[in-house]
Amino acid sequence: MTAPDLLAPLAGYYADKIARHGQTPQGVDWNGEQGQWLRFEQLLRVADGLAAPSINDLGCGYGALLDFLVARGREADYLGVDVAAPMVAAARERHAGRANARFIEAARPDRVADVGLASGIFSVRLNTPDEAWFEHIVATLDVLHETSRAGFAFNCLTSYSDADKMRPDLYYADPCRLFDLCKRRYSRQVALLHDYGLWEFTLIVRQ
């Protein structure tokens, strides 16, 4: 399956979500702000020790990560990237006039930054078969690796989730498989976080 064939349905899926729920966690298919911000805390560990880092936020939605950074008083040079045009439009409206922040409609960043982040973009696979979706994940991680100087971080739903709560349109990744992939393909410095109370995990890859 080619990237456009895969990404177009996803763009439509998320365009529908924000049309229904607006600029809320539900508008990007999360349950609530508490879990959303907890995810951001894990992802931003990749930027520990960096003062005012440049950040590429792949799958930025309406720019909730930028809200998080501002609320925590963390300075950053921020780029939000999303394939859904309504998400980018909402983000630009929400953060109009904010310094050191811009948003683009694209599948990859248009610059190299200190760190790259991807929150939730590997969860909804719709009808894509497991292995085709895994190949898409690897291709996207390649992009994060290529466009990040200090490292990148991403999260996935975990294959250790309760079977009776799994949905067929979601992808539940094997954390050990992705940890091994990241160690062998990108860096020797990889951390697996699977202890923060959600049915998911975060991988931190330091370049």
Automatic annotation (TrEMBL):
<dbReference type="Pfam" id="PF13649">
    <property type="entry name" value="Methyltransf_25"/>
</dbReference>
<dbReference type="InterPro" id="IPR029063">
    <property type="entry name" value="SAM-dependent_MTases_sf"/>
</dbReference>
<dbReference type="GO" id="GO:0032259">
    <property type="term" value="P:methylation"/>
</dbReference>
<keyword id="KW-0489">Methyltransferase</keyword>
<dbReference type="InterPro" id="IPR041698">
    <property type="entry name" value="Methyltransf_25"/>
</dbReference>
<keyword id="KW-0808">Transferase</keyword>
<feature type="domain" description="Methyltransferase">
    <location>
        <begin position="57"/>
        <end position="107"/>
    </location>
</feature>
<protein>
    <submittedName>
        <fullName>Class I SAM-dependent methyltransferase</fullName>
    </submittedName>
</protein>
<dbReference type="GO" id="GO:0008168">
    <property type="term" value="F:methyltransferase activity"/>
</dbReference>
